[in-house]
Design goal:
A hairpin with a 2-residue loop joins strand 12 (260-263) and strand 13 (266-269). Helices cover 42% and strands 15% of the residues. It has 491 residues and is α/β, with parallel strands linked by helices. It has helices at residues 61-66, 68-77, 79-83, 95-101, 108-118, 136-155, 173-184, 197-201, 205-219, 233-241, 251-257, 281-285, 288-293, 296-324, 327-335, 339-350, 352-358, 377-386, 439-455, 470-475, and strands spanning 5-11, 14-21, 26-30, 32-35, 57-60, 89-92, 122-123, 162-163, 191-193, 225-227, 246-249, 260-263, 266-269, 395-398, 408-413, 417-419, 461-465, 481-484. The strands form six sheets. A five-stranded mixed sheet has the order 16-15-14-17-18. The chain folds into two domains: 5-358, TIM Barrel (Alpha-Beta Barrel), CATH 3.20.20.105; 371-484, no CATH class. It is elongated, with a radius of gyration of 26 Å. It contains 20 helices and 18 strands.
C-alpha cells in the first residue's frame, strides 16, 4: 500500500503534509523531527517527549533484536511499552551498523518480520548505505543490492505497518535519481534518502542538497521523504526547502554528552558560554555556570532538553514559514550563519526550475535580502511569464515616472524587471526591496527585459534607468534604447 500522505501547503519544494500512520491510528504533521531513542540509554524519558512537541520517534530494531532480554520483552510487551512512548514509532533496521562495521547478522526478511511482530509503526529494510566518497562501481553494486532488498521488502507480509524504501546512490546525482524512481515504483510507503550523514558532518551541505534534489526528481512530488540522520537544527530549513518531510535526530542527546549546546546558527561548547540567549525552559531556569557545576547525569539531561527544545522550535518555525510563504527568507537568514550553509543555499537556487514547479504562485510579501534573492523561483516565474506577453510599442520601461511621449510605459522593478501595470499590485511584484540594490538585482531585472524583448521582436523598447551597473546594461538586447535618468539614484 501507499502511505496516505496529503500535502496541505507548499513553499519552494517544502510542504506541510499529513502522514497517516495506520498502525498507530495517528496522523503526523510534516515537516517533523523524530528524536532517536536508544533502547539501552534514555537521556530524556520517552514518556516526556510529547511535552516537547514530539509526534513520532525512531529507535533501532537491530539493537533490540541483538539483545536477548530486549528482544523477548519487545515480543511479549510490544515496542511501545518497551520504549515508553504511546505515539507512532519508526524503527531502523541495522543499516547504520552495517555501514559502520561491515556486516550484521540479520536478513531483510527477518528484521522486517521482527519489526512487525513487536509492533513497529514504520519499519525499515536492510539497505546498503554507501559512503559518499565510494567510487561509481561500488555505488552501482551497492545500489543494485539495495534495490534487490526493496523487492524482498515488498514481498514480506507486514499487515498495516508502513515500510520504507531507502534511496541510496552515493554522490552521483544520476544514480540518486534512478534510485528514487525505482523506490517510487515499489508499493512501499515512506522514502528515506540515506547515507548523507558523512556529508552533513563534514559541512558538505551543497552536495547534500544536490543529492536530495536528484532523489526528489526520481521520487516525484507526492511521496513523503525522510532525510536520514539530518539532526542539526541549522540545516532543517534548507533541507525542507529542497523537499524533505521527515528528519531524525540523535544529535540532541549525543551532543549533550559532549557538553555541546545546539543553536540554529551552529554548535557551542558549554564551557565557552557566559550567558544563555535561548528562552527555552532549561535556559530560562539555569545559567551556564549552574550547568557546568551540575553532576554529569543532570548536566547531560538538561543540555539534551535544551537541544531538543531548540530543534523542535525550529521545526515549528519552519512549518509556520511555509504557511506564511516565507520559507526562503528563513533559509536565507539561516544560510548566512555559516559559509558552508551559504553554499548549500546557493546550490538550492541552482535547482530553481525544480523549485518553481513545486512553489505556489501567491504568498506573503517577497523580501529581497541579498544578491541570492535575485535567483529565487518567484523571479524565474515572472521572467517566464514576460516571455508570453504581447507588448505594443514604442514601450517605455522605466525606473522613474511615465512619459506621455510613448505609446505605453511600464515600471521596472529589480530583480523582476518589467512590471505590467495590471500586475503591479500582485505577488511577487509587491516585493520589499532595498533602496541600495546590489548588482545582481539589476542584472536579474535586465534578464527580465531581455525575455520581454525577445517575445516581441517588432516592438520598440526604451529602458530608462538610474545608473545601472555595466553588467546589467550589457545584458540588455542591442536593439533596446537605454536612457540614463540621473547618476547615482538607483544604487
Amino acid at each position: 500500500m501507499t502511505a496516505p500522505f496529503e500535502i496541505r501547503q507548499q513553499d519552494a519544494a517544502g510542504r506541510i503534509g499529513e502522514l497517516a500512520v495506520p498502525r498507530a491510528d495517528r496522523t503526523v504533521e510534516t515537516p517533523a523531527l523524530l528524536p532517536v531513542v536508544n533502547p539501552h540509554y534514555r537521556t530524556i524519558d520517552p514518556d516526556r517527549l510529547s511535552a516537547f512537541g514530539v509526534q513520532m520517534l525512531i529507535t533501532n530494531s537491530y539493537i533490540i533484536y541483538q539483545d536477548e532480554d530486549l528482544r523477548e520483552r519487545a515480543r511479549s510487551e510490544g515496542l511501545h511499552e518497551l520504549i515508553g512512548f504511546d505515539g507512532p514509532i519508526m524503527t531502523d533496521s541495522g543499516s547504520f551498523q552495517l555501514a559502520e562495521y561491515g556486516d550484521i547478522s540479520v536478513t531483510t526478511e527477518e528484521i522486517l518480520e521482527f519489526q512487525a511482530e513487536m509492533g513497529s509503526d514504520i519499519a525499515t529494510p536492510v539497505d546498503i548505505p554507501t559512503h559518499p566518497d565510494a567510487d561509481r562501481e561500488t555505488v552501482e553494486s551497492d545500489l543494485a543490492e539495495t534495490e534487490r532488498r526493496l523487492a524482498i521488502a515488498e514481498s514480506v507480509d507486514t499487515g498495516d505497518m508502513l515500510v520504507t524504501a531507502p534511496v541510496q546512490g552515493g554522490t552521483f546525482p544520476d544514480l540518486r535519481e534512478q534510485a528514487g524512481a525505482n523506490a517510487a515504483a515499489t508499493d512501499l510507503d515512506v522514502f528515506p534518502v540515506g547515507a548523507v550523514v558523512p556529508l552533513l558532518n563534514n559541512y558538505r551541505y551543497a552536495e547534500a542538497v544536490d543529492l536530495l534534489a536528484a532523489a526528489k526528481r526520481g521520487l516525484g512530488p507526492s511521496r513523503p521523504v525522510h532525510l536520514f540522520g539530518a539532526g542539526h537544527p541549522m540545516t532543517f530549513a534548507l533541507m525542507v526547502a529542497m523537499g524533505a518531510d521527515l528528519f531524525d535526530s540523535a544529535a540532541y542527546a549525543l551532543f549533550a554528552r559532549d557538553e555541546r549546546y545546539l543553536t540554529v546558527r551552529g554548535t557551542k561548547h558549554l564551557e565557552d558560554i557566559e550567558e544563555f540567549s535561548c528562552t527555552c525552559p532549561v535556559c530560562a531556569e539555569h545559567d551556564p555556570a549552574t550547568l557546568r557545576d551540575a553532576d554529569e547525569t543532570t548536566r547531560t539531561r538538561l543540555l539534551a532538553e535544551h537541544n531538543l527544545h531548540v530543534s523542535m522550535a525550529e521545526m515549528r518555525r519552519i512549518r509556520e514559514a511555509i504557511r506564511e510563504g516565507s520559507l526562503l527568507e528563513l533559509v536565507e537568514s539561516r544560510a548566512h550563519a555559516h559559509p558552508s550553509l551559504l553554499d548549500g543555499y546557493r546550490t538550492l537556487l541552482d535547482h530553481v526550475e525544480q523549485l518553481e514547479r513545486a512553489d505556489r504562485a501567491s504568498k506573503s510579501t517577497f523580501f529581497y535580502l541579498s544578491e541570492d534573492s535575485a535567483r529565487r523561483p518567484e523571479v524565474r516565474r515572472h521572467h517566464d511569464r514576460l516571455g508570453r506577453l504581447d507588448a505594443e510599442g514604442p514601450l517605455l520601461l522605466t525606473e522613474g515616472q511615465s512619459d506621455d511621449g510613448y505609446e505605453d510605459s511600464w515600471r521596472i522593478k529589480p530583480p523582476f524587471g518589467p512590471v505590467p501595470p495590471a500586475l503591479s499590485t500582485t505577488y511577487p511584484l509587491t516585493a520589499e526591496v532595498p533602496e541600495r540594490m546590489d548588482d545582481s538585482g539589476y542584472v536579474a531585472a535586465a534578464r527580465g527585459v531581455k525575455r520581454l524583448v525577445e517575445a516581441n521582436p517588432e516592438t520598440k523598447f526604451v529602458v530608462a534607468q538610474f545608473d545601472w551597473p555595466r553588467e546589467a546594461i550589457e545584458t540588455l538586447p542591442a536593439r533596446v534604447t537605454v536612457e540614463d535618468l540621473g547618476s547615482g539614484m538607483g544604487r
